[in-house]
Protein 1
Amino acid sequence: MSELFDAVDALVASRSPLPPPAERKRLRAAHGLTIDEVATALKVRRATVSGWESGKTEPRPPERDAYARLLKQLAELYPAPADATVPPRADATVPVQDAAPAATSTGTPAPAEAPAPSAGPAPQAAAMTVSENTRTSPAPAAAAAPAPLPGARKAPPAAPAATGGPRFDNGPLAVIDVDTDGKTLAYCTGGLVLDVPAKSLPALVDWTLEEAKLGQPKLSGPGKPADPLLVLTEPALKRYGLPAALGEEERTAGRLPEGHKVVKQLTRADWRLTKRGFGPWARIYRPAQGSERACVQLCIPAWDALDTRHWGDAGQLPPAELARVLGVYASRVMTPRGSTAVTGLELMTALHPPTRASGPDETGRRRSQHNPGSLGKDPVDCAPCEAPDGHPVLADLPRFHVRGPGEKLFEEAYDWARPLTDAECLRRNLVGLDVNMAFAAGANGLTVGLGAPTHVRNPAFDPKLPGSWLVDLSHVDLSRVKTGKEWVELDAALLPSPFTPKGDRPEGPAWYATPTVAYAQELGYEVRPLEAHVRYENGRYLDGWYNRLRDAYLATMADLGVDADLPPENFLAAMDGCRARDPELAIVVSAVKATVKGGLGKLRERPRGEGWRPGEPWRALSRPTWRPDIRAAVISRTRINFHRKIVKHAAFTGQYPVAILSDCVVYAADGESPLDVLPYREGRPLPGGFRLGVNPGLVKWEGTQSVLWGEGVREQFEAPELNLARYIKDGTVTAQDNGE
């Protein structure tokens, strides 16, 4: 009989009444308890208690009985005020039609150098729905972030919920996991959790497309909605018959063998895999029927799908937190399509689809036609000077021929350094400044070629015409240049040349992208190209791409407490430790920045194994987005933007950089702060020079080391021109600098 009584007691405990979430929090705080103390006592995670107090989750037995007991005792000690309004119980049923719509938050206006972000979606609690086969409940909330600085925004507790209509009610993606009870769950954005009935991978794909309501609306009129993304945790891999890790041969191939049992299951169910097979980012599809797509993408963190260089420890996060990180990224950038580099390239295409529907003809039928402003659906050949070594257009060159500047376009980021002067050695510190989203800023407003190049002999230079120009810029003398309408005298020996990545003065004719040649004119010097490959079909192809990534970056930084309109001192204070306020959102910031650099790098993707030999085409050449000329133009403009600010700074302050690496510059200074380097008068920066701020193109503090440190590491490695910008962040030098 005692066993029956125990069973009855357990049944009653499983439905122990709980006060509403706000009251739970009040009672805990009234007794001076922290969330961590409650979590420790109940042997649960901190985020679990936070979820109970926010109403995003409800406790389950056996923790529910203990939690109810705690709250009951606290309620006896601290009764609610008589005039308090008690909201409805958090575990009451919520009708589907009464679910609140998605909320929005408005971005902060940005300075003129980078336009303000558009309004973006704000996080919200998930609506609760009930069906016969699918249970939904809120996921555990992420740990609360520390209080932000004055004027800072509070970090969101979850990824934004979808706003794409009923078809995408549950957001763009789900993290599939198996709990301790053996139940398969789908953790969605907005804190939603779905029961997954599928027992096999083909059934999981069917469920995703037919019931899960996952996906993302298209980003442009002629585009297509994003396919659902499923992220499989290690327990989910085991549930669906997949290995927890790829073997050595599988890692080398980047996929499972075609004979694997799960691949055979998909084949028997008439599902197909793309050419890259079943790897860390697998796409499972059936051929489209008309406009209807049937495609699901998988992301497998245990197989290194989330590169730690860009996603940090995202792959190790619990399912709810991982859904939040990927959900914020998806809502602000796009649903990941692979690595951050792949996603950066896919974002370009999503914003400028290659085709669109024509107007109806006499029969009312519409046809596919070229979408103006896009790169089209067919690849175009690059000019010989734009081709990387081994490209088919260079097949006639001798096998070991090394192309010089007169044969090869070499637009790359800065890697330049010089010895300190005697005066600089007497200063105490070296201060590093880093340009925010430098390459994104270089893409903003840039006119690039859309079609194939046209070869022209002895052309007149046109700064508005994108292309590659063979021109001699060795006569440009940095000791006397124009800034605006005035000529200024500078110490050219202390400045890098703007025309070469290493900062060396060119020695004769060389190939340059349009922004580089235009800057020579801007400095007050005549240019006479010998020949050019120009693109008469052109446009500002990257503007929408820049705007999307800028908005994502600024919105996420604002969530971390760094707004776009902070004064210099407040900006430096807000940046100090901002990543620690919400480490998950800090991951999103890193991923957004990697999307910029990786997407631009993909424009000139090199062969990746595949048995390739020099002179043969490789897979990337078949893409319309294989455009080394666009990459070169962005890098050219980024480097020129950097040099322009350096010249302004030198002309106004007499200070010259001692090292530059990509988007970081180092100056000698007596103080430790960027404010000891940057000239501010009454809170206003030097016009056209460096300016502190979070917007793309503005600068932040990279790090400060002593001059003695700099001279010491150069002596240690016997390298007087060691690039100190590479190590200024934390001062750690692990090996001799080889420029790589």
Note: DSSP finds 21 helices and 27 strands in the chain.
Protein 2
Amino acid sequence: MKETKTVPESSAHTKSTIIIILITTLVFAIFINHELDNLNKYSRYIAENGKSALFHEEYINQKISLHLSRSFSAGEHKYAHGPLSPAAICQRMEHTGNIYGLNLNGHTFPSLPGTLQTYDPDCKKWAADVPGLLFFNNQIGDTSSKYSFSNYTGYKFNNTRYYIDLKNNYIYIDKIVNTKEYTFNNWLIKNHDSIDIKQSAHTIDIDENALTDLEKGESIVSHIYRDGYTKNNIISLLTPIFTHGDIKGIILTDINIADLTTSFYTRDRPFLWKFLTLYVKDNNTGKIIKFHSPSFTLFNTGNSLASITKYYTLHIGIDVQYFIITNFWIFILYILSTYLLCEYTKYHQTRQQLLAQENITDAMTGLYNRKIFALTLNKLVPQLLKKQVPITALAIDCDGLKRINDTQGHHMGDYAIECIGQAIRQSIRKNDYGIRQGGDEFVILLIGHTYHEAQAVLSRIAEALRILDKQHIVAFSSGCYQLEASDTLEIALHKADARLYAHKRSNNTVRRP
């Protein structure tokens, strides 16, 4: 049996459903777009918040620079005697190989919180600076000012600060560093030569123009580079220190992954933070520092970009999981409403198809009834003939149906009709049409079959009837006609009927043996 046309009501239901789904989808898209717009605005807030934090680190550098400059310029007389005098400090000097300094292999000089490294064994040149370096550590935690416009407070950084002295050729690190494991050779110069700021600064990827600005007194930043000490990509902030009008040294602060995380962390929306992917990309070199990502990711719904400096761009991605979780109710409502609308349409389509099927189906045999001619075949047959598809019509009726009704009862007559109908259904293909015209008269249209191929179908029907007819009372007669290009369906059926009745008159019927 074929799929049949549904009544227009099914099409109307489908169109209505499509319109409603389109409307709900549009509303859903508008809602999600609004959420995306809000998150894009919040991404800009994240960027500004992080820039404020990094600017605050620059402020700390500048504040330390100011105090160190004043301390170094004050002279040595204040600490001429006592535990911080040059003589006392020189007594505590250590060396590891050709590296000299303080706290090289442990915290052996408690007055100084960090490590001082130099190639110069003449400690008198740099020992006078040590009292000033004490302030280097103390000021890190004391950065607030009652006259500052900044409200950036409560953020704890875990960065590393260095002081590189260009006059006395040493480096001071604000943490204890095991010199046996690491020496800051990129800044230290052997053979008592002076530290070449241009040569050393290139090791942390600083532009020539930026170096010129540094020497003029400006704070600068490096490009992203791989740090030899931590083995990670970092950014460095550099601030100069001047004494008596000349540059004496540089404060260098490393901004690492933990510091970037601290800077850009959104305290007011901690749940959102779990689904953010953030990284800083160097616009010149293409290097990145990826400092935050979700523990599990599906895919990012967007990638917001924000300029940090002329060197860096912040990339912010929000994983789709955030939208699913925070807008769970709207997702469920949209999916449920769409599902129910589709099921509603499917129900009506199925119902209309069943009604249409019943409308053209013979209840007794399950074959098509006469209505299939007007609905389908009157249009289909001419189209197939134009394409030169062979079509053969078979006319079949039950032999002796009146005798069976009169002698064995009408229920046996119905039995005979049902047997023939079932035999036809079992013997034809899905693209063929088996039709009960009325009473015991049947028509079969074989699509793509010639006259000779139709004989095999008749043989299959006879064999199927032999198996189905348990009472051995059913036989049938047939007429076969292959349509020509000029034939109409009506003419073909008449010719098949004529051959059927000719077959009967000559008593050359197909019966059970």
Note: Confidence is low (pLDDT under 50) at residues 1-8, 508-513.
Protein 3
Amino acid sequence: MNKRIYHKLCKGLVCCCLGAALFSCSDMMETDNHRVAYDNQHQLNQANDSIYSVIGVLAQLQQVADRIVLMGELRGDLMTVDPQMASTDLQAIDHLQFSSDNAYAQARDFYAIINNCNYILSHMDTTLVEGQTKVLLPEYAQVKTLRAYTYWQMALIFGKVNYFTEPLTDVSSAAALHDTEIDLDALSLLLIADLKPFANIRALDYGSIDGWNSSEFFLPTTMLLGDLYLYNNRYEEAASAYYELIRQRRLTVGSGYANTWRTATRQELNNGHLRAYVSEMITRQVFDSNLRSAHSQLRKLTYDDGLSSEFHAPALLPVKSFTDWMQQRTHFHTDNGQAISRFFYGDLRGMAELSNGKRIGDAFGPTIAARGAASSPLYITKFYNNLSGSETDLLSRRPLTSLAVLRPSTVYLRYAEAINRAGFPTTAFAVLKYGLNAVMYDTIQHRVDTLEMQRYPSYIDFRASQYDQNIGTAARGLGLGIRWDKTQYVIPADVDTTDYVERAILDEMAAESCFEGNRFFDLLRISHHRDNHPAFMARKVSRKYEDDAATEQRLLNLAEWFAHEK
């Protein structure tokens, strides 16, 4: 396909696909606007129509991609703001104090996506058959999934949504939405029921588009189902959904995306994890490569290279307690791949410090100009590290063209969360320390409790050769020698095993996928597993504020976590 065709397909949505008088995002939910109209005679019964329809929804999701990440991170315990550089709106999100006019908390853009999906679903002809195949069913299933994803992201931001599944075609139908409001819990059940029949529909793949593998544009239905089950404490169903995705996609967590020291002298670094954010992908949000096109602004908010006289401090920063914790973790180095040869400090997925004092950032680190200065501030470098071009190019000419939505390690970590709560804590811990493969069944090495092995359900089976390359997710930053550790990275004998492992999983989620937009959902979901919800997340997040005790008390009210809808 020609370069930039993804962008062209996106821009062609309204005229090529729907043939409808679609209202703009700013008109959504405005009941006094009379431009809410569709051509109800247009049926989506051609393959090209369906392709344009799905790509069009992805184009709309570009408009909300940044705010999903920001709402997912600033309400967590890993990201904060520079009060001098951050806008009032960003500061408000960071302190969970929202006003209805916050630019990052506008519901109408989400509703416009949902209404577009409703139109597509109501007009797509899923009965069209070629041979014995319903040719449009995969597109139909993906639009269902994208609609559910949009609803779920809305609910995670606002705490409640107006739920509707028919397209709004006139003013009266838009006005009726105000009577359809439901909360997060109720929405999750509706979405499960809506998606479950489409869990095993063939995944979409349109080949190469603008240099990207188009299969990575689409969100697996089984992943979203797993998340919804997990939120609802339906652990076995969640584990089954995640396992099915792992099995079908042959997903592994390999050492190729690990950050490790090449020698015990810390003079050289294998920084494979640096590529994970852009190369190890199941689902990504992409933007056009043309510099004049719309792109994510996350690099501009988090990083300046420090090489220009016009250097501006970033608006978003890593939380200091998080970077301190990452730098103090034990790193288990191996020279020969057979035993631990040295112990160092630092989870290298955050930042690596070479023996000469030079610091190289993965998720966070100094600017290029200050890499050799031990006292220089630490910034979020994850987005800068994944810009187009190279460090020798002008920063203004290096757009951020891809945001990670789903990576294999995220699937494995949520799978670990599910099986831990389902009664398999040592197997869940093996996801972090050893990796799930045929070796975990070796009772001599005793990586997993044999009593757990004896009652493994069908959703725990990693004996196939396709999993041979699996390593523990923690090994990606704490060293490939971690598998031989017997004293430090272990489950203590005198603890609540499930609770200990769950906290370890949450820590590992922070190290592996910080700043990617997952943190609020991770905290909310794990807190939701507990009887005193939301106390667990309130305590975790309040620690980043000076008035932590007062903030914690305020955040015990679940409503305080969510934005006011406009």
Note: The radius of gyration is 24 Å.
